[in-house]
Every structure is written in C-alpha cells, then in structure tokens.
C-alpha cells in the first residue's frame, strides 16, 4: 500500500563529530541537470531503502521524477555517484522545499547541509527571499532548524502551519526590517493578525521603514509571515495612506502567499 505523500528531509543532519568539512567536501559536485544515470542511481537506492526499512521517499517517486524533468531538483554527486537530492517549487519570491534525502549510508557526514546551502544560495541569486517547507514526519523539524528555519508566528490563522502533526517552517534569506515598539514615528506599516472588522486600535506589529536616498526603496525590506485577509495600515505624517486587507495592497505588490514582502512604498 502506498504511503502518504511526505515533504521533509531525510538524513540532512550536522556531522556527528567536528570534522574538517573543507577536506571532506573536496570533489563534491552539485548538479541541476541530472543525467539518466544519475536518476537511475537515485531510484536504485530509494528502492533499496524502501525494501529494507519501509522508509524513505520511493513512495513519492513520480513527484521526484517530475521535479527532475522540471529542473527543480539539485543532486549531490560524490565520486560520480548521486548520493543525495533536494526538490522544490517556486512562486513569486517564495520557494518551497518539497523533498530532500541523503543516501542512508552517507548520512551524518555534512553532505545534507552542503547540498541545502548550495541550493539556498542559488535561489537567493534568482531573487527568492523566503524559503518554506512542511516538516513531515514531525521529527525532521530539528534538522531544518539547524539550517536556519523557524516556526510561523503563534497566532490565529497559522494553526495548521503550527500543528503538532508536522509543522511548517520558513527561513528569510536576506536581512529584513524588524518590528518596532516605538510609538511616535513619522511613517509606519502596522499589521493586525485579524480581519479589519475585528481589528482594534493597537496593531500587533509595527515597522518604521527607512528609505534609500532620493527614493522610496526601503533600505531593508519588510518580510513577515501573514495571512491575506489580515488588516494592514500605512500611515505617514499622521495621515492614513492606505488601510485594508493585505490582499488589496496589490498596487504595491506586497502580497506573497503566506507573507508580506515590502521592498518599496511609492506615494504615487
């Protein structure tokens, strides 16, 4: 019987002992265009793992294969053998990790971190600023946290993302503006974790954007997990410029699935 589709890491841990990874990693290659031999190699050890332990991701082979065809997979090659892979999909400025695994006998050597960080750097160069994923099985959460991922904000709206059955995590790839507790600011972005008709006077989060000289480009972007129906308000010099649901801020292009991403605030 086929097992339920899973999204997780398997075998992406830190090294079990403090080794010199600069030496251990020599000769490794990352491939984004796998050959048929590479694909066959991965399938063979996924099948072997399935037969030996009833674990691993061969149950998702059709999804993995589609990622290879879509060029949304990175392979780790050691001594001309494919010993690991990671797949993802993309939307706007957010990339979602789907499945990743290191061959069972090659684990706890730092290979997983090497593969993941290489991919994250590539996605950053392509313009992605947030990564997210679903920890399934739940025990993979600790592994992802070692790679810089964090839980979604503990608030109404993110109950499913924070469920014990398998949490969703995210990682912001670039420096971003942090919320402030300052009260008197000449320009603010305020965010409530509820719809406008339930929003009170006090926002849960507030940012004080600062701009590059002579422009309305933010020095540091605002990147934050948020639901599309939450209330957001933009105030300048005591005047409300815009105050409504996040999804209606499309003119400024801030609505990206489970996040607000604000890089500029044009006044016209």
From TrEMBL:
Coiled coil: none annotated. Residues 1-20 are annotated as: Disordered. Residues 7-16 have a biased composition (Polar residues). Residues 30-175 form the N-acetyltransferase domain. One of its GO terms (molecular function) is acyltransferase activity, transferring groups other than amino-acyl groups. Keywords: Transferase. InterPro entries: Acyl_CoA_acyltransferase, GNAT_dom. This is GNAT family N-acetyltransferase. It comes from Pedobacter psychroterrae.
């Amino acid at each position: 019987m086929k097992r339920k589709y899973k999204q997780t890491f398997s075998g992406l841990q830190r090294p079990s002992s403090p080794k010199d990874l600069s030496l251990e990693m020599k000769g490794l290659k990352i491939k984004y265009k796998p050959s048929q031999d590479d694909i066959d190699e991965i399938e063979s050890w996924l099948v072997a793992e399935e037969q030996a332990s009833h674990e691993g991701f061969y149950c998702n082979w059709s999804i993995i294969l589609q990622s290879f065809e879509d060029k949304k997979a990175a392979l780790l090659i050691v001594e001309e053998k494919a010993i690991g892979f990671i797949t993802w999909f993309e939307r706007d400025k957010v990339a979602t990790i789907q499945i990743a695994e290191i061959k069972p006998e090659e684990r706890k050597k730092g290979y997983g971190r090497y593969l993941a960080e290489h991919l994250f750097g590539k996605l950053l160069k392509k313009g992605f600023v947030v990564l997210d994923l679903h920890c399934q099985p739940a025990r993979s959460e600790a592994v992802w946290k070692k790679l810089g991922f964090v839980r979604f904000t503990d608030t109404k709206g993110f109950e499913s993302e924070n469920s014990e059955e398998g949490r969703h995590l995210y990682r912001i790839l670039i420096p971003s503006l942090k919320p402030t507790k300052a009260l008197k600011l000449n320009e603010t972005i305020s965010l409530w974790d509820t719809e406008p008709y339930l929003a009170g006077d006090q926002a849960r989060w507030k940012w004080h954007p600062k701009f590059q000289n002579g422009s309305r480009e933010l020095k540091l972007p605002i990147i934050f997990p948020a639901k599309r129906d939450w209330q957001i308000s933009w105030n300048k010099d005591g005047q409300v410029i815009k105050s409504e649901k996040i999804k209606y801020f499309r003119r400024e292009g801030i609505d990206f699935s489970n996040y607000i991403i604000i890089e500029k605030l044009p006044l016209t």
